[in-house]
Amino acid sequence: MAQIYVSGHRNPDMDSIASAIAYSRLKNILDGENQYVPIALGPLNVQSKAVLEGLGIPSPLFVKDVFSRVCSVYRKPTMVLDPDDPVYELVNMYNQNNPSVVTIMDGDEFRGLLSIDEINRYFLRENTGQRPVYDILLRNIPRVIKGFFLKKGGQEMIHAAIMVGAMDYKVFCRRLSECGTKPVLVVGNRLDHIKAALDAGLPGLILTGMSEDGLQQIDLSRYNGFVYVSHEDTAETIRLLRLSVAVDTLLVHKNTVRITDDMLFETAKGILAESEERGLPVFSHLTDEYIGFITRRCFLNMPRQKIIMVDHNEAMQSVPGLEDAEIVEILDHHRLDAPKTRNPISIIASPVGSTCTIVYDLYQRHSADLDEPTARLLLAGISSDTVMLKSPTATSLDMHAVSEICSAFSIDYDAFCRELFSNGSSLSSLDPAKAVSSDFKIYSECAVRFGIGQVEVTTFSDLSDVRDRYLAALESLKKAEKLEWTMLLVTNVMSEESMLIATEYKKNYKLLYEEREKGVYYLPGVLSRKKQLLPEIIRVLS
Ligand SMILES: [Mn+2]
Fold it and tell me: pLDDT category, 211, cuts 50, 70, 90?
């Protein structure tokens, strides 16, 4: 079951929030195979918050971006060994499961990753010319070689070479005396050799093919090393002894870049490509704990977050990381400037007053059950986007949806709108920075990047007093977003007209509107940013 995000635009307004929630609900009714989750790309505006609270509908999930990250591709460790475990077990894991890497954990502490490369290196190291020396961990011997300890000396770990006592007694004694570091001796039922080895103080003896009688005759009273009785023959005993070495000795610690689960897919892929390792460990960016590893196989396909765009279709107004995501559907009432998609998708775009009208229409078309909270939510979205159906963007379809919802749930539309716009305020009651940015849209036209915010008020009376503060807020937003022009459409929902506060734009231009004072224009009858203001701005730019 895939999780599919249903997302409105950045700086979400009532229509974006309402259509994302209501459309997710419809999709979940129609499609049981996937899970549709409404998301918000920023904090809700006052109106949306009040409507959701009033209807008892939870706020959408806040999502910062949809970049693909390591967290969706790393692999949890299933093959784990303790640093003391014998190489024998590691080799068995490879024979049975051929894992890409095996994790070495000392309790909760991450020690390293081992791959077939380290096993190869271990056996190659044995053939570098000199007699190899091993770290023999005594407690591993019975785990690997069938047999028992006749005596355990004081040392748990012995650093020694391995020697076989198969030669003639005299040759053997000479060899022993010539040895630099004393070896661990593997020897059969040869009592003279055994006695010489005990006297020479070798660190340990492994006896093969011993008779009961022979064992009785060995005097260990003055010997401090270990004696192990193997049930295997000499060749097999030596082979297994080399495999009893702890995996810890195979770990070579290098300073590699730390991979965390929040790292971007492409970044981690690049690091792994540069590295000579088969796998790199992954740590939680929150707790710093080891959580798994990445291998090259993790990066064959980038997992893409599936997303339905509602109430917008332009990448610039959409969730950051959209380029990593898979757009599966678009539901919108704006001009079309959608990103290229990889697969065929469904687009429902219609020049109606609100995306919620399209969602309402889809509920009708699918005869899906529309419950009262969702119906009221759609009504709020339509009324907000069309300014109570007064905006020139409002169509007969919007009006039809409103009248059907109102009659189905006996809603007094005037009272509904009065409550919906009761948060409408005056400019001086708002924080300029917030008012300018809360419903702010960025456009790119004629190679000019500019942005227009919109705010609804119930009076213009205080505009002159606060003009400078709003212009300053627009200037800093212009800088922060690296734009060439920023403006705020201040819409009076009562008198159905707007004022535009605009920063200076470099070229000589002349807006069709009357400039009432420096940077403030009067826009009679203008309620819609996209349908009325935007065409005029584009005209000026082109
Ligand atoms: Mn809309």
Answer: confident
Q: Are 118 and 99 in contact (CB under 8 A)?
A: no
The 10s digit of each residue's pLDDT in 137-192 is 999 999 999 999 999 988 999 999 999 998 999 999 999 888 888 999 999 999 99
Using CB atoms within 10 A of its CB, is residue 198 exposed (0-12), middle (13-18) or buried (19+)? buried
Tell whether the model's pLDDT for residue 316 goes beyond 80.
yes
Instruction: Quote the CA–CA distance of 377 and 499 in Å, as a whole number.
Output: 29
Please return the burial class of 339, using the count of CB atoms within 10 Å of its CB with bins 0-12, 13-18 and 19+.
middle
Q: Would you list the domain boundaries of the chain?
A: 3-68+304-420, 80-250, 427-541
What DSSP string describes 41-78? SSPPPHHHHHHHHHHTPPPPEE------BGGGT-B---
Ligand 1 centroid from CA 509, angstroms = 29
Q: For 327-371, what is each residue's pLDDT tens digit?
A: 999 999 999 999 999 999 999 999 999 999 999 999 999 999 999
Task: State the residue for tokens 């757009």.
Answer: 327
User: Which SS3 state, helix, strand or coil, does residue 542 take?
Assistant: coil
Distance 8 CA to ligand 1 centre (A): 9
Residue 530 CA to ligand 1 center (angstroms) comes to 10
Task: Establish whether domains 3-68+304-420 and 427-541 are of one fold.
Answer: no
Strand order across the 3-7 sheet: 61-62, 35-40, 3-7, 306-310, 326-332, 346-349
Cα-to-centroid distance, 470 and ligand 1 (Å)? 24
Note the CATH architecture for domain 427-541.
Roll (3.10)
- From 3.90.1640.10, 3.40.50.2300, 3.40.1010.10, 3.30.420.40, which CATH number describes the 3-68+304-420 domain? 3.90.1640.10
Element (H, E) at 37: strand 35-40
- Indicate the class that CATH gives domain 80-250: alpha beta
Length of the chain: 542
State in Å: Cα 55 to ligand 1 middle. Answer: 20
**Residues near 294 by Cβ (< 8 Å), separated by ≥ 6?**
70, 73, 74, 75, 259, 268, 272, 279, 280, 282
* Alpha-helical regions (H) of 98-186: 116-125, 141-144, 169-178
Q: CB 101: neighbour CB atoms within 10 A? A: 24
CA of 245 to the centre of ligand 1 (A): 68
- How far, in Å, is the centroid of ligand 1 from the Cα of 79? 52
Tokens 């305020």 belong to 425
Cβ pair 335, 78 in contact under 8 A: no
Full-model pTM? 0.72
Q: Distance, CA 532 to ligand 1 centroid (Å)?
A: 14
Query: What mean pLDDT is predicted for residues 225-254?
Result: 93
